[in-house]
Write a sequence for this structure.
């Protein structure tokens, strides 16, 4: 950008720090457009600063997002509901924790005692232990259609802690056992219900109440 002196027609180049012509010394009026034009290095520094400012503004925009969106009530409610739903999912989700071997044995012994007591109640009401034709252990849950049945005696029949079915034999002295960790019957790690577990306590017999209006099962699970 250049300017000519109106008196001597000398060509003047920026920056123009003074209103006096460098050729003839006469004072002239310098337009504001030319008055403070920067040199080449000043231009580079200015352009570099503008570029840095623009980059900072872009980063601020990316991290802050839309200022109006965050202030919208509907958006805030949506975010809160999403967080609540995620928290409920984490809390309600079951966590499967394997039992240690010692606890597996204790859990299985406890279930054997419960099943043995239920078999004792069945015998007290019906007159004999459930036979295979009556469904075996399932006769404790499903009405086998025999007189005197006052179940349910248990809510369900589960496998033992090693996911093997309990073994039951309705002899005069019934046999009820778990195959244990090796899942093989007749080995040293079998867990067996004690004879006294089949004898219900007198107070249990006195306060026992049958499930009302439970019809006989149409089909027994064996």
């Amino acid at each position: 950008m250049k300017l000519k002196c109106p008196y001597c027609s000398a060509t003047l180049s920026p920056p123009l720090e003074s209103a006096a012509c460098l050729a003839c010394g006469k004072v002239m009026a310098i337009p504001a457009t030319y008055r403070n034009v920067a040199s080449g290095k000043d231009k580079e520094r200015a352009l570099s600063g503008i570029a840095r400012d623009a980059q900072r503004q872009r980063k601020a925009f990316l991290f802050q997002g839309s200022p109006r969106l965050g202030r919208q009530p509907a958006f805030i409610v949506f975010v809160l509901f999403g967080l609540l739903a995620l928290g409920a999912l984490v809390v309600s989700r079951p966590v499967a924790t394997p039992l240690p071997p010692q606890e597996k044995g204790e859990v299985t012994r406890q279930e054997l005692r419960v099943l043995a007591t239920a078999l004792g109640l069945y015998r007290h009401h019906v007159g004999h232990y459930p036979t295979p034709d009556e469904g075996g252990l399932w006769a404790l849950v499903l009405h086998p259609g025999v007189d005197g049945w006052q179940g349910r005696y248990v809510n369900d029949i589960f496998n033992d802690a090693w996911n093997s079915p309990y073994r039951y034999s309705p002899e005069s002295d019934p046999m009820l056992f778990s195959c244990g960790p090796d899942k093989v019957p007749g080995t040293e790690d079998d867990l067996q219900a004690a004879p006294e577990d089949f004898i219900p306590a007198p107070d249990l017999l006195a306060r026992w109440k049958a499930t009302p209006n439970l019809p006989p099962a149409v089909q027994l699970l064996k």
